[in-house]
Specification:
Elements lengths: L3 H37 L6 H30 L1 H4 L5 H33 L1 H7 L8 H39 L2 H31 L1 H4 L5 H27 L7
Helix pairs in contact: 1-2, 1-4, 2-4, 2-6, 4-6, 4-9, 6-7, 6-9, 7-9
Keywords: Membrane, Transmembrane, Transmembrane helix
Length: 251
């Protein structure tokens, strides 16, 4: 059987390279944007930070999509499914590889944002004058919980995509056309309901965001628990479907 380390290296190597590529393209876009502004209207106060955050925010969405695609390819390609490893180890290692790549890009994001924040230090200090009175410890705990929430939400989105993908492939294996359409319709309704509920929770979190800086972390903890619980349930179902009905296609 293939070891975890070897499997993680196989699944993660290409994804980390993609993160470097996206980060490099983001840096090039930031440089070109600031250079253009410098030649035309000049660089105003706070522009370095805003341009950096704008491009990196867009890059984060691209990264999430690329990792979601890589996740699904592992479940359907002979190259990965023929690796001598259990379906559970394959699924969990695949998920961990994507999460690690996302965290890696997040660290690059933080470093670049830190550099741009240092450049626009005075502008940001004036902008966050009211927040500066928040105790440092409470602010750090809140930001830590926010990061955990984002990571758990990423996992939930990936497990939901895999759940929909595997259910559709499974029903296509033995159900007639009418039965498959009914199951798929129910599945899409469930996913829409799940997306709506997640958005409602997120909007509620935003409305209570200021409270967390005062020491009330319960909204964060509640949503992290809900999202993580849903992701675990979906992961269990996905592993079962992958083991029983997961079929590969030629590369």
């Amino acid at each position: 059987m293939t070891s975890f380390g070897s499997l993680f290296k196989v699944l993660g190597m290409q994804r980390f390279r993609k993160m470097n590529d996206v980060a490099g393209l983001s840096l090039a876009a930031i440089f070109v944007s600031l250079l253009w502004s410098w030649f035309t209207t000049g660089i105003s106060s706070g522009q370095v930070f805003s341009v950096t955050e704008s491009w990196l925010g867009s890059a984060s969405m691209v990264v999430w999509i690329l990792l979601a695609i890589d996740n699904e390819h592992v479940y359907t390609r002979d190259t990965f499914r023929l690796i001598p490893v259990s379906d559970m180890k394959l699924y969990l290692t695949n998920l961990l590889a994507s999460l690690s790549a996302f965290v890696y890009f997040g660290l690059i994001h933080l470093v670049l944002m830190g550099i741009s924040a240092r450049i626009d230090h005075k502008f940001l200090m004036d902008l966050t004058h009211g927040v500066a009175d928040t105790p440092v410890q409470k602010a750090l705990i809140t930001m830590g919980l926010l990061i955990i929430l984002v990571l758990v939400l990423m996992i939930l989105i990936w497990t939901t995509i895999s759940f929909a993908h595997l259910v559709v492939r499974t029903t296509g294996s033995f159900l007639p056309n009418i039965g498959r359409r009914i199951v798929n319709a129910i599945l899409y309704l469930l996913i829409i309901y799940l997306v709506v509920r997640v958005l409602v929770y997120l909007f509620e979190l935003v409305s209570h965001f200021g409270v967390s800086f005062q020491g009330d972390y319960s909204p964060f903890i509640f949503m992290i628990s809900i999202f993580l619980g849903l992701a675990i349930v979906e992961a269990i179902i996905n592993i079962f479907l992958l083991k029983k009905w997961g079929e590969t296609i030629a590369n």
